[in-house]
UniProtKB/TrEMBL annotation:
<keyword id="KW-0804">Transcription</keyword>
<dbReference type="Pfam" id="PF16859">
    <property type="entry name" value="TetR_C_11"/>
</dbReference>
<keyword id="KW-0238">DNA-binding</keyword>
<dbReference type="GO" id="GO:0000976">
    <property type="term" value="F:transcription cis-regulatory region binding"/>
</dbReference>
<dbReference type="InterPro" id="IPR011075">
    <property type="entry name" value="TetR_C"/>
</dbReference>
<dbReference type="InterPro" id="IPR001647">
    <property type="entry name" value="HTH_TetR"/>
</dbReference>
<dbReference type="InterPro" id="IPR036271">
    <property type="entry name" value="Tet_transcr_reg_TetR-rel_C_sf"/>
</dbReference>
<dbReference type="InterPro" id="IPR050109">
    <property type="entry name" value="HTH-type_TetR-like_transc_reg"/>
</dbReference>
<feature type="DNA-binding region" description="H-T-H motif">
    <location>
        <begin position="44"/>
        <end position="63"/>
    </location>
</feature>
<feature type="domain" description="HTH tetR-type">
    <location>
        <begin position="21"/>
        <end position="81"/>
    </location>
</feature>
<keyword id="KW-0805">Transcription regulation</keyword>
<dbReference type="InterPro" id="IPR009057">
    <property type="entry name" value="Homeodomain-like_sf"/>
</dbReference>
<protein>
    <submittedName>
        <fullName>TetR family transcriptional regulator</fullName>
    </submittedName>
</protein>
<dbReference type="GO" id="GO:0003700">
    <property type="term" value="F:DNA-binding transcription factor activity"/>
</dbReference>
<dbReference type="Pfam" id="PF00440">
    <property type="entry name" value="TetR_N"/>
</dbReference>
Length: 211
């Protein structure tokens, strides 16, 4: 993460404070609202500045491009995401993760925002990189829950902890993107149960852990 004032920092990546933090929050909120309401194609820096009640020059100078703004929005979302829940069992932890993802995707604003960003990532390299970073941060946050399950003997040693976490959210995103339906809590629980069962059966062993 770039420090404030670092030379050569990408637009929108310098960590703000004080008034700069308030400006950043207002602009990112306006960008998120526009993405949720109208999609990536209608994201315009001048319009974002107007909605955020911030000078257009400030927005152009700080973020430079729409993709730079979206990258910063995803960085902020990753930083603001709730920390992992530890229940003492693999299924309990994965269910907590799945329900968190489900609530996010079922939220009218957040669900629409993620759909817009995912769509943009298919053709915008910087947006794709920012989206990968967002999910890398979230998977890294929850992976220790799977490692704790390995340590407790719930799942085999050599289990790929990151793949287990990805397996939890994958069906929820698939449902949202292919059907347009917001996943419900029952779908979240099924995703967690399937991932936990597969992990216990050794489906996510790294190659070196397979016999």
């Amino acid at each position: 993460m770039a420090a404030e004032g670092a030379e050569g920092a990408e637009p929108g990546t310098v960590r703000p404070g004080g008034r700069t933090a308030r400006v950043r929050a207002a602009v990112l909120r306006a960008a998120g609202d526009t993405l949720a309401e109208r999609g990536f194609a209608h994201l315009d820096l001048a319009d974002i500045a107007r909605r955020a009640e911030v000078g257009k020059t400030t927005v152009y100078r700080r973020w430079g491009t729409v993709t730079g703004l979206v990258a910063d929005l995803l960085t902020d979302m990753a930083e603001q995401s709730l920390p992992r829940t530890e229940t003492g069992s693999l299924l309990g932890d994965l269910r907590a993760n799945a329900r968190l993802v489900q609530r996010t995707l079922a939220d009218p604003r957040q669900g629409a925002l993620f759909k817009a960003v995912i769509a943009a990532a298919t053709c915008e390299t910087k947006t794709a990189e920012a989206l990968r970073h967002f999910y890398d941060v979230r998977v890294e946050e929850w992976a220790p829950c799977v490692q704790q399950a390995v340590d407790r003997g719930e799942v085999p040693g050599g289990t790929d902890t990151h793949e287990v976490v990805r397996a939890v959210s994958a069906p929820l995103y698939y449902r949202l993107l292919t059907s347009g339906e917001h996943p419900d809590e029952a779908a979240a629980d099924r995703a967690a149960e399937a991932a936990a069962a597969a992990a216990r059966a050794g489906a996510y062993l790294r190659n070196e852990g397979r016999v």
